[in-house]
């Protein structure tokens, strides 16, 4: 059984894992700059570099929705379920990056998985919050 003290351990692990994933895709941008000879502040020129950059940009865009949704779901529904859905989000983002690095059209499956996870967390958050308000 989760106690107040350890209830946030799993969502914390998912948060740290998401941040690690973001750090890795950010490092990949630097590596791609060197590999494809795209000097800062340039962000265009080589399509292979541009795909790596888009993975990083899209990941940070998605994290803005994902992280608050993860924590709200954990607070109002379940930290364990939030963590499981959050792990699915991370897997989706890995698949997104892996596919996008190869070709833009290969990003769809990973994008779909991570978007569905985010929408599940967000919808669950609203449900939990509204249910809590109705009980108050």
UniProtKB/TrEMBL annotation:
It is a multi-pass membrane protein. The keyword Calcium does not apply. The chain crosses the membrane at residues 12-30, 64-91, 111-134. It is found in: Membrane. GO terms for molecular function: glutathione peroxidase activity; glutathione transferase activity. One of its GO terms (biological process) is leukotriene metabolic process. Keywords: Membrane, Transmembrane, Transmembrane helix. Gene3D superfamilies: Membrane associated eicosanoid/glutathione metabolism-like domain. The keyword Mitochondrion does not apply. GO terms for cellular component: membrane. This is MAPEG family protein. The lineage of its organism: Bacteria, Bacillati, Cyanobacteriota, Cyanophyceae, Oscillatoriophycideae.
